[in-house]
């Protein structure tokens, strides 16, 4: 059963109270693709690098997955790499200790939560656990970017990166590899930016673009309030897009100040009884855009949704009729 139009409209309009945006449209679901071969059902990052679809899991520290399009069901094939020990984290000892313990229990000490690539074929993986970015070259060698220590300090001074499992959650990089955006997940959520100058990553004019708090009603469980969040970022045609899991939407944001310009909802497709998962915040963790589509990856944590499907999924939504860049 689908949500009635009136009820869905009420839920959507209410969910915008924490972060007002100029407009909201509903995206049309074109297809959904179950993924086979992705260990543990944990899809935390997605990218199309050249002609290849790539994915990453937050429970595995030594591999990417190449996604092979085979009709409705896509097959994931592992591509392994050797990550050197992560750099010393600027996060406080208490957060690092909790992250270390969580990694022992569930797997994935590096906790990769984002994936992007530049025009030279380098892949970038965001480690939430260590607030660090791993670069994998086209040849397969892996090295950590030397990020400035002021990045975490400025983020924490703005109220971000204060809580366990609510740290950095998404990244996007310019095709030329000169500018890098990072998203702080929640409580407070925010956007950070770094510039590469003379081969070094720096906070030019400050790292923090946006820091905001707020609550939004769960679209899944009436009466439940959730913090506003970011679950991934993507840069498309020079514009920054955020995936917002709790609100079931994608927003276009100004890459220079992080302010929302326009948002599109995918709640109508996500909240049918057949597609609902047994948690209040949704499962959308990964985002990629092209001219014709938005691709949203779901990390279902091994849980079955309403129709019994328990594999990780990739949703393909049609781009808005006027495109992603329209005013």
Description of the molecule:
This protein has helices at 5-15, 93-106, 150-157, 267-270, and strands at 24-26, 29-36, 45-49, 52-56, 63-70, 73-80, 112-117, 123-127, 132-136, 142-144, 168-173, 179-184, 189-197, 200-202, 208-212, 215-217, 225-227, 232-236, 239-244, 249-253, 260-265, 284-289, 293-298, 313-318. It has 327 residues and is mainly β. It has one domain (5-318): 5 Propeller (Tachylectin-2, Chain A), CATH 2.115.10. Strands 3-4-5-6-2-24-23-22 form an 8-stranded mixed beta sheet, with no helix packed on it. Strand 8 (123-127) and strand 9 (132-136) form a beta hairpin. The longest helix is centred in the N-terminal third of the chain and has 14 residues, at 93-106. The model is unreliable at 1-18 (pLDDT under 50).
Largest sheet: 8 strands, mixed
Q: In one word, what is the shape?
A: globular
What count of helical segments does DSSP give?
Answer: 4
Tell me what portion of residues adopts beta-strand conformation: 35-45%
Name of the CATH first level: Mainly Beta
User: What is the H-and-E element order?
Assistant: HEEEEEEHEEEEHEEEEEEEEEEEHEEE
- Structural class designation: mainly beta
């Amino acid at each position: 059963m689908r949500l009635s139009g009136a009820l869905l409209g009420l839920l959507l309009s209410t969910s915008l109270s924490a972060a007002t945006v100029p407009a909201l449209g509903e995206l049309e679901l074109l297809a959904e693709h179950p993924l086979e071969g992705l260990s543990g059902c944990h899809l935390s990052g997605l990218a199309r690098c050249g002609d290849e679809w790539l994915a990453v899991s937050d429970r595995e520290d030594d591999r990417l997955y190449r996604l092979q399009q085979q009709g409705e069901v896509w097959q994931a094939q592992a591509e392994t790499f050797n990550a050197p020990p992560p750099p010393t984290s600027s996060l406080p000892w208490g957060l690092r200790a909790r992250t270390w313990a969580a990694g022992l229990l569930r797997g994935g000490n590096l906790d990769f939560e984002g994936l992007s690539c530049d025009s030279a074929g380098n892949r970038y993986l965001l480690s939430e656990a260590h607030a660090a970015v791993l670069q994998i070259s086209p040849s397969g060698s892996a090295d950590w970017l030397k990020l400035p220590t002021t990045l975490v300090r400025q983020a924490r001074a703005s109220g971000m990166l204060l809580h366990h499992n609510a740290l950095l959650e998404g990244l996007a990089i310019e095709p030329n590899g000169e500018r890098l955006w990072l998203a702080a997940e929640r409580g407070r959520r925010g956007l950070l930016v770094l510039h590469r100058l003379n081969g070094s990553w720096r906070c030019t004019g400050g790292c923090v673009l946006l820091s905001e708090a707020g609550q939004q009603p769960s679209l899944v469980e009436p009466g439940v309030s959730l913090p506003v969040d970011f679950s991934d970022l993507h840069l498309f045609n020079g514009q920054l897009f955020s995936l917002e899991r709790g609100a079931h939407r994608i927003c276009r944001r100004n890459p220079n100040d992080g302010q929302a310009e326009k948002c599109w909802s995918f709640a109508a497709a996500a909240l049918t009884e057949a597609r609902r998962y047994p948690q209040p915040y949704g499962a959308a963790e990964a985002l990629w855009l092209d001219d014709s589509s938005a691709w949203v990856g779901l990390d279902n944590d091994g849980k079955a949704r309403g129709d019994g499907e328990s594999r990780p999924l990739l949703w393909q939504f049609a781009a808005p009729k006027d495109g992603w860049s329209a005013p």
